[in-house]
Amino acid sequence: MITTANLEKYRNGDFLQFVNNVLELLPQATADQLNIGSQRTILQTAAQSFNNAYLPYTGSDITPEIQALDAQRDNAVIGIKMMLEAWQYHFDPVTKNNAFALLDILNRFGDRIYKLRYQLETATINSILAEWEEKHSDKISQLQLTDWVNELKTSNQNFNNKYIARTVQLSEVETGVLATARTASTEAYRTLKQHIEAHALLTPNAEYDQLMAKLSSLVNQYNLAVTKYSSTEESGGEDQKPESPQTPS
Q1: Which of 3, 20, 163, 173 lies 20 to 30 Å from 63, alpha-carbon distance?
Q2: CB 15 within 8 A of CB 53
């Protein structure tokens, strides 16, 4: 028997690669010899349809805007922090104390806010701004940070608006043509699996055994990968922002 694949838990990219790997392990000529050629053909056709649906899903036209807005708010966070750090050494006691107060709030949320995953950074910036504006608006004015704070607030809100717009856009694809194509590919794979197991049972052959062993090994690798990235979802998952070599350490 072939190990059961936890297909429902596979991310779309992993699911597509899994199906492609199955097709690679079972060339059409081999499938024809084992009397499962038609099932493989059906799976290959379904996989191609899924691939065609998946490409626009990964290439949202909103993504570049999201990345630009994320960089914009990151620059605002970094700029404000650097100014506050400099003012800690100011000769005027009022300026120094105001800088310490605002910086203390900023540092409370971590020293690398700009490295947080997208929506966690959005929430963190909102919390910082809320506390600054509610309790320390006088300090912001005294330090002449109003324009900086407005820049951070605007870029963060614009980022969130675009992020939500992309989420809606992708959900429409994911629940529409992509979902249909994935369902077809899932059914095609399971049908192929059933035929392989049936032939192996009714007409025992070393080639069926070897094929089932290869597929089981493949399934085990993907199932293990699922458990690993599921357990690390809190650290970012697909919401993790790309690395930026220009960001200071």
Answers
A1: 20
A2: no
102 neighbors 136 (Cβ within 8 angstroms): yes
Which residue numbers in the chain have pLDDT < 70?
56-59, 172-174, 229-249
Contact yes or no for 115/137 (Cβ under 8 A): no
Query: CA-based diameter of the chain, in Å?
Result: 90
- Is residue 132 within 8 A of residue 105, CB to CB? The reply is yes
| pLDDT score at 57 | 59
Amino acid symbol at 49: S
Residue 155 CB contacts under 8 Å (≥ 6 apart), including other chains: 69, 72, 73, 76
pTM for the full model? 0.58
Say if residue 34 is exposed, middle or buried (CB neighbours under 10 Å; 0-12, 13-18, 19+).
buried
**Cβ atoms 78, 70 nearer than 8 A:** no
pLDDT value at position 244? 45
The DSSP string of the chain is -PPPP-GGGS-HHHHHHHHHHHHHHS-HHHHHHTT-HHHHHHHHHHHHHHHHHHHHHH--TTHHHHHHHHHHHHHHHHHHHHHHHHHTT-SSHHHHHHHHHHHHHHHHT-S-GGGS-HHHHHHHHHHHHHHHHHH-HHHHHHTT-HHHHHHHHHHHHHHHHHHHHHHHHHHHHHTTHHHHHHHHHHHHHHHHHHHHHHHHHHS--HHHHHHHHHHHHHHHHHHHHHHHHHHTGGGTGGGPPPP-TTS--
